[in-house]
Amino acid sequence: MTEAEVGSGKGGSEAMSLKDKGNEFFKAGNYLKAAALYTQAIKQDPSNPTLYSNRAAAFLNLVKLNKAPTDAETTITLNPKWEKGYFRKGCILEAMEQYDDALAAFQIALQYNPQSVEVSRKIKRLSQLAKDKKRAQEVQNLRSNVDMEKSLETLKSEMDSFQSTSSQKNWPFSLLSEKYGAEDCWKDMFSFLVERMETAVKSWHETSKVDPRVYFLLDKEKTQTDKYAPVVNIDKVWKGQGSRKWRHGQHDGFFVQFESPLLRKLWFISSSNEMGKTLCRDPEVLDMGTHEVLPRLFKEKFSNSS
């Protein structure tokens, strides 16, 4: 609880009597009555910074954050070298969650009273709050702006390489080529994978769950895998339990497996709790032979040669 200042002031005895009565009500937790008495005292002695400081404390406890800042600033104006005005200002800004500005006010207060343990504690606490607020905003931005394409730049380059070296006659994705055109096949597969991964990440952020199933680019769940290739993405939840031995063994997350005749990839997207929110990390490529979620889906491996 913020305590009212009991200083002497410059006003007459009536103002001091009103202030003392206000202090008693303040200590009893009757901040409304205290503020009223401080207001009466200010009318008797309008140049007394202690009265404005006390009323600022009362307004703060009443959560009257539209009135408290004015009294804190008036305290500073009337006595610029008194740390209490800056302390009041810092407390009010802290209540308004303006942590950087509050920290600046407390630092000025400490300059005028370097021995103040209370101010030092405030500075330490506000420094951590400011850091936490910044990180919470960063986490929220990461949760809201999922960009798997950036995380899969290496895969995109690999797909571009397949596209440039594969001839039309050896192109294994005959149905895809017919639907999208040979040049756009890898591009469309990459976009499909990015979309499925981003959807899974957003679902994990909100519910810590994904829909563990196979997704087909052509939206056909009954296909002849020996004749043409559906492009699939498999999500499977991992809850950090079981006998699997690997570096992510204790992290929650999910697997994503990409299957095609020419290219197979497996990722694990781990997650952690940051600032009370679930946050997915960048996907990490896993060794398919060691961590394969599903066996190879296609019967043939096609050559890249022309």
Q: What features would you describe in this structure?
A:
Helix content is 53%, strand content 11%. With 306 residues, it is of the alpha+beta class. Strands 1, 2, 3, 4, 5 and 6 form a six-stranded antiparallel β-sheet that branches. Helix 1 packs antiparallel against helix 2 (31-44) and helix 4 (68-78) packs antiparallel against helix 5 (83-95). The relative contact order is 0.08.
Distance N to C terminus: 80 Å
- Beta-strand percent range: 5-15%
Indicate the overall shape: rod-shaped
Question: Class by helix and strand content?
Answer: alpha+beta
Q: Give Rg in angstroms.
A: 33 Å
Order of helices and strands: HHHHHHHHHHHEEEEEEH
Keywords:
53% helix; alpha+beta; disordered C terminus; single chain; 12 helices; rod-shaped; six-stranded antiparallel sheet; 306 residues
Walk me through the topology.
Layout: H1 13-27, H2 31-44, H3 49-61, H4 68-78, H5 83-95, H6 99-112, H7 117-144, H8 148-151, H9 153-165, H10 174-180, H11 182-207, E1 214-216, E2 232-238, E3 253-259, E4 264-274, E5 277-280, E6 284-285, H12 288-291
Antiparallel strand pairs: 1-2, 2-3, 3-4, 4-5, 4-6
Short note summarizing the structure:
With 306 residues, the chain is an alpha+beta fold. It has 12 helices and 6 strands.
